[in-house]
Amino acid sequence: MDAFERRSVVALATVYLFRMLGLFLIMPVISLSAADLNGASAALIGTAIGIYGLTQALLQIPMGMLSDQVGRKRIIVLGLILFAVGSIICANADDILSLILGRAVQGAGAIASTLMALLSDVTREQNRTKAMATVGISIGVSFMLSLVLGPWLYSLIGLSGLFYVSLISSLIGISLVVWMVPNVKQHTFRRDTTPSLSALKSVLQSGHLRSLNMSVLLLHASLTALFVCIPSLLVNQFHFPLINHSWLYLFVMGLAFVGMVPLVIIAEAKGKMKQVMTSVMLLLSISTACMGIVPGVWLFGILLWVYFVAFNTLEATLPSVVSKLAPVGYRGTAMGVFSTHQFLGAFVGGVGGGWLLQNTSIETLFITVGCVLLIWTLLFLRQPAPPQLTSVAFSLGGLNQKDINELSSTLMMIQGVEDMQLFEDEQTAYLKINKKQLDRDSLLRVVPQVTL
User: Fold this and answer.
1) Architecture (CATH level 2) of domain 1-186
2) CA separation for the pair 144, 44 (Å, rounded)
3) Helices 125-179 and 3-24, packing angle to 10 deg
4) Which residues contact 250 (CB under 8 A, 6 or more apart)?
5) Is the Cβ–Cβ distance between 267 and 277 less than 8 Å?
6) Which are the contacts of 230, defined by CB distance < 8 A and separation ≥ 6?
7) What's the CA gap between 230 and 224, in Å, rounded?
8) Where are the alpha helices (DSSP H) in 180-296?
């Protein structure tokens, strides 16, 4: 990357980090702190935790498409303003319904797809995968920081204070967008980062992608459902003070990252994606079901570590597999649908977890979530292993349709090129290649601008 691209990517990744940090900070404390609000019940607290996912899911793709007409930065700033307004509503809420409204408004600032679109505007094809990975890392970091910082900050400034921190994070994000992210006068439609209505049907009809979408929905549903009750379980059953929760999460998340790395390496580098994914799904289900019946906080911490090793592994590998299986040239659409399911999962988990906690018990909640994950693991076993393909994009450099057709015929004759799409309007080619079989020299002779 050159200096312009590095500055742009760092700025956008930082915007995303602050945005998600503001959203997740309350997760490790809200189930305890919101209980004092007027009209609060376990079901409504669960709704308050997960409602942001519903508005995110409904609005992120439409806002991304709207940014093609009115500009990326305007939509991102609008989204951050909505998030700031939602934070103010939450900070001043004295009843649970006001808190739910504020969380819904927070989620309405759905800027994920617009950020990805702007990322494609400010990076070249050969650097776009690195840029997207950087943003992905910022999301993971924000979640880890939220779990560690949330209980500690809550002990200092309370729930309202956490929402004011969210307000500050959104204002920092607006400043970064206005002052650090370059102005792009012409926004180019990029199929590898921007959803396309024309490709939506093929993405939704893909059995492979449906399986992955359901996986991420259940993954995030389980996470949100668990945090409806984990804070109160630690305090009320294990008598573990809330101020010490930060240390527990720091310990668990740090070791979970260490445990995740070798599994991701085995999945990606060793070609064992199917085996790793099904194994960690099984770990996810077993650890969740057992959390509700362990007698002590240390055993609970070990199970929570196992859960997050599995969670982090799937969080890292699922998007990679979606990218491999997406219709060639339409990764943006596939990732948009995938993210929509992810946000829907947060909503389903919050509402479902709250309902289970109100109408049954903590033990039943854990066992139910674990059983659902186990059933899905058994169904996932029936899916074929994902192909070991890599997506490559490069500029066509102003070719007309005749030249594009000739280039397409030549590329399809190269060993290891499995599929392709060449778009005259975008002047970009998208290839699916098998790196183990690829005739690299032939490909580079035909298109020396490609980066492998």
Assistant:
1) Up-down Bundle (1.20)
2) 25
3) 60
4) 148
5) yes
6) 28, 31, 304
7) 10
8) 197-205, 207-232, 245-269, 273-291
According to CATH, what is the number of the domain 200-387? Answer: 1.20.1250.20
Provide the phi-psi class of 328: left if phi over 0, else alpha when psi is between -120 and 50, else beta: beta
- Could you give phi then psi for residue 395, rounded to 5 degrees? -80, 145
Q: In this predicted structure, what is the pLDDT of residue 451?
A: 74
For 32, the 3-state DSSP assignment is: helix
CB 97 within 8 A of CB 197: no
Of 132-141, 390-399, 439-448, the range with the highest mean pLDDT is: 439-448
> How crowded is the C-beta side of 41, counted as CA atoms within 13 Å?
9
Residue 42: both structure tokens together: 């376990």
pLDDT at 28 over 80: yes
Binned at pLDDT 50, 70 and 90, residue 398 comes out as confident
Question: Out of 120-124, 175-179, 338-342, 419-423, which region has the weakest mean confidence (pLDDT)?
Answer: 120-124
Enclosing H/E stretch for 60: helix 42-70
Q: Given a cut of 60, is residue 274 above it in pLDDT?
A: yes
Here the tokens at position 53 are 């996912």
Cα(283)–Cα(288) distance, rounded to whole angstroms?
8
Indicate the fold that domain 390-446 takes in CATH: Alpha-Beta Plaits (3.30.70)
- Neighbouring C-beta atoms of residue 251, cutoff 10 Å: 14
What 3-state class would DSSP assign to 169? helix
pTM strictly above 0.70: yes
User: Which of 209, 319, 446 has the alpha carbon at shortest distance from 429?
Assistant: 446
Q: What is the pLDDT of residues 124-140, one digit of tens each?
A: 666 666 777 777 777 77
Distance CA 367, CA 370 (A): 5
The reply to whether domains 1-186 and 390-446 share a CATH topology is no
Task: Return the closest-CA partner of residue 263 out of 319, 325, 312.
Answer: 312
What's the distance, Cα to Cα, between the start and end of the chain in Å? Answer: 15
The overall longest dimension of the chain from CA atoms, in Å, is 73
Which amino acid type is present at position 116? M
> Using one digit for the tens of pLDDT, what is the confidence trace for 79-89?
999 999 999 99
> What distance lies between CA 33 and its chain's CA centroid?
26
Name the nearest CA neighbour of 148 among 37, 241, 65, 28: 28
Distance separating alpha carbons of residues 60 and 72, to the nearest angstrom: 13
Residue boundaries of the structural domains of the chain: 1-186, 200-387, 390-446
